[in-house]
Amino acid sequence: MDCYTANWNPLGDSAFYRKYELYSMDWDLKEELRDCLVAAAPYGGPIALLRNPWRKEKPASARPVLEIYSASGVPLASLLWKSGPVVSLGWSAEEELLCVQEDGVVLVYGLHGDFRRHFSMGNEVLQNRVLDARIFHTEFGSGVAILTGAHRFTLSANVGDLKLRRMPEVPGLQSAPSCWTALCQDRVAHILLAVGPDLYLLDHAACSAVTPPGLAPGVSSFLQMAVSFTYRHLALFTDTGYIWMGTASLKEKLCEFNCNIRAPPKQMVWCSRPRSKEKAVVVAWERRLMVVGDAPESIQFVLDEDSHLVPELDGVRVFSRSTHEFLHEVPVASEEIFKIASMAPGALLLEAQKEYEKESQKADEYLREIQELGQLPQAVQQCIEAAGHEHWPDMQKSLLRAASFGKCFLDRFPPDSFVRMCQDLRVLNAVRDYHIGIPLTYSQYKQLTIQVLLDRLVLRRLYPLAIQICEYLRLPEVQGVSRILAHWACYKVQQKDVSDEDVARAINQKLGDTPGVSYSDIAARAYGCGRTELAIKLLEYEPRSGEQVPLLLKMKRSKLALSKAIESGDTDLVFTVLLHLKNELNRGDFFMTLRNQPMALSLYRQFCKHQELETLKDLYNQDDNHQELGSFHIRASYAAEERIEGRVAALQTAADAFYKAKNEFAAKATEDQMRLLRLQRRLEDELGGRFLDLSLHDTVTTLILSGQNKRAEQLARDFRIPDKRLWWLKLTALADLEDWEELEKFSKSKKSPIGYLPFVEICMKQHNKYEAKKYASRVGPEQKVKALLLVGDMAQAADVAIEHRNEAEMSLVLSHCTGATDGATADKIQRARAQAQKK
Asked: How is residue 169 annotated by DSSP?
């Protein structure tokens, strides 16, 4: 254990810092680090190098090379730089490389050197050129801050949603500031800069002079400044060799340290652990590395070669041509367990486990000591936590074995934390492998989340490892394996050296019917890569027509889209394609396309009936569909024409169409309607009143109600209305007029073709029993009983029923007998029934 703490360095009395090697770098650097622009992404991200055009002269013919490596030095991309001079490099939160050029244009590249996009920081930056730039991160995304040759600042807080802000001018600023940085306070990006002994804070509205509280006197210039990883703390390096540390708001001082070195440092970054009370800053010169904090002494390391510092959430990565190391504060759990002569529960449990492996009785003594103090659960938890913060698998296993050993002596210790730590460490050890090159710590992994880590593995095209992690952690398919396979398929379609058939087959064999995978998204990526035929083949595997059709329309495969929409049975989808086709094709081609698709043609006709009547007529004409054309003209005659002449002309056109369709009935009916319209117009002119648009029956009834009986009869003869229908019409009309005298004359004009029971019913409907009785006596024998019952003559109805010896009629009369008033009638019927039964 003493050997294990050999690389621990105390900073004051309460904290230790250690530096251990992550990787031995085997990269083949073409330039020294000091001659390059260097950008390293946090969370174990990649490293980008580009020869600094301002630091080292090269022959004009030699173009710089942009190189991208993993954190372990494995080459990821290399491309010849053919654009303008680059001032600064930086990585976005999505691991996209931002290259800020002297002309203010920012080029964005992917992890593998693929060009993504570019944007400009504005005309003012273009005119005045870029002196310096910073890439910073906020909760909204990744931002870019620019210092121009006019000594003005321009920034965008989110390059994904570019909104440029020109910061206020600093009064009297005639030269570049000695140092500056971007701060994020209250969800707003600010610029802090030093001009001589003065500090200025720029926000979107004003320039404010600020003074760090408790700053040592005699400062004439600030040489370097550093903001912490979380943007909560700020460090200032002065020309007097003092390092001031405080809050980023410059309202509180944490500590101050005199390093006795006045030379400006090459880099200065914060090195602090989340939730730690200790705050430290790492300062680097050419061959010296110093860790300072709230302690009278510092920790110093010798740098054998050019090095670069990368601030992390819980420490600092230090890489050079040959090594990549991690410097951080020793976590509390590790310190408790491993510090010399520690009697912490975790330390005793670790010793107990080691003694147990040696089969020594000391294991029992250590365990008893922990149990007597009641600290065994705490000891197990300490070992589990410390295992998470260890980089080397052997030490992780040793601590986890100790935790497992301690759990055996606890009845109700929840296993979740132990199992979860084992899973997390397996994942971390896998991604820390040299060939993967993502040296995440446990704290970084928890902050980053497993979903983001999987995204980063996908970004590196490490699909097998990502899938293995998903399966090991048993993540839901939609969040895990399915999503990764979809990314793999999108990458696969970009391999243009493989035929479309082979790519489509390989994707389908790998994906199959995996839930959560959209073949349409993959096809869209293929189409974006210029592989239209591959996209169509992939869409064949897409089960959802709603996803197929929009992409087919986008690819200008409208006829295929129409076929797919029809197969789906989704009428809304068919209408969408039809409207697209209508705008895309000329009228003739559009109609020919519809002719080959009966369902589409039918739906389009329905659409035209409500929206485009003229188009509907053209469709019928093209198809020689005279039957529908006739129906169209009939509807048009009433919908569009107000003049009687126009309507008659439209009906004539309809009749001609029906004759062509060999529909004699429809043609004759249409001609009859034309005759009726002309007659109705004449009646209106002669009699007044409203006749137009009435039906034939209503016209006859209106004439009768108007007292025009002869005209009504003539109309009935002209249109061959049957006698029965005419008698019904006249009967109803005269009863509505209550013209009983005329009704009686009408009933005696000749024998009624409808009988006389309707007369009785109509009179009773008008509540005129007197008139009804006149006709009841004239009703035929078969309906006599019913007529007598209608007028309320129960006794006579009973006599007729008995006379007819009709059981049904007698039952009908009995059903109408009520109370004592009809008792005699009911008895008479009952006696008649009894006599009939005796016979």
From this structure: P
CA 491 – CA 710 distance, rounded (Å): 90
- Give the span between the Cα atoms of 670 and 626, in whole angstroms: 14
**Residue 658 to residue 631: CA distance in whole angstroms:** 9
What's the one-letter identity of residue 114? Answer: D
Given phi > 0 = left and psi -120 to 50 = alpha, else beta, which region is 85? beta
Angle subtended by helix axes 757-765 and 769-776, to nearest 10: 170
Beta bridge partners of 198: 195
Q: Where are the alpha helices (DSSP H) in 281-338?
A: 332-338
- The distance in angstroms from the start CA to the end CA of the chain is 129
| Helix ranges, 719-821 (H) | 723-737, 740-749, 757-765, 769-776, 781-791, 794-804, 807-816
- The long-range contacts involving 480-485, CB below 8 angstroms and separated by at least 24 positions, are 480/454, 481/514, 482/514, 482/515, 482/516, 482/517, 483/454, 483/516, 484/454, 484/458, 485/510, 485/511, 485/514, 485/517
Tally helices (H) and strands (E) across the chain: 33, 29
Helix H or strand E encompassing 627: helix 626-639
Spans of the chain, pLDDT less than 70: 1-2, 54-61, 588, 590, 600-602, 604-625, 628, 633-634, 636, 639-642, 645-646, 650, 680, 685, 693, 819-823, 836-839
Q: Which residues contact 173 (CB under 8 A, 6 or more apart)?
A: 151, 195
Cβ–Cβ under 8 Å, residues 52 and 36: yes
DSSP state of 108: E
Nearest of 319, 339, 317 to residue 328 by alpha carbon: 317
Structure-token match 């600290």, residue found: 375
Looking at the chain, how many residues does it have? 839
- How many whole angstroms separate alpha carbon 544 and alpha carbon 518? 9
* Model confidence, pTM: 0.73
Does residue 95 contact residue 162 with C-beta atoms inside 8 Å? no
Nearest in space to 189 (alpha carbons), one of 146, 149, 151, 220: 146
- The one-letter amino acid code at 817 reads C
Tokens representing residue 315 in the block: 């420490």
Q: What whole-number distance in Å separates Cα of residue 170 and Cα of residue 164? A: 18
At 243, phi and psi to the nearest 5?
A: -115, 115
Could you tell me which of 260, 208, 217, 256 has the C-alpha nearest to residue 236?
Answer: 256
